[in-house]
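debug: dumping io for the single-chain case to check the tokenizer round-trip. Nothing else runs in this session.
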Amino acid sequence: MTLTIDPQANTAAEMVRTAPTTALRVASRNYELYDTGNVAAVDEVFAPDLIDHNPVPGVPNALDGMRYLIREVRDGFTDTQHRILFQQELSDGWVVNHWQMTAVHTGDAFGLPASGKPVAFNGTDIVRVVDGKIAEIYHVEELLQLTMQVKA
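debug: decoded output
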């Protein structure tokens, strides 16, 4: 399975610099953390009382869940880049993002041993930004796409 990368889609870093509103910039900053592996910046991007509607099983709270996910991506992949395929700001601070992550699977991540293979998979997030931080998140990742590429 090969996914086509949209060369016109902005990277997360580009969106953080150029998005016209705070909510759009903050929503994009989430992906920048994965691209840089910057676990320490979770507290800068997410509210302390973050509500994660798709929490990581067995992780005590939503912020620790975000840290876990960023560490897994950082430790399992190199050349990680998120591209924003679609982004729309709604009312009350809500932002919808459809994104694609490309990387090389060079380490163990999410229970998958390193394969050395390039990967590209999509996801969709709906976040609510309050006072410059993500306060609530719904996230869905196309993990079947990822698994099929790694195991092919």
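debug: round-trip ok. Residues 10-151 form a domain with the Nuclear Transport Factor 2; Chain: A, fold (CATH 3.10.450.50).
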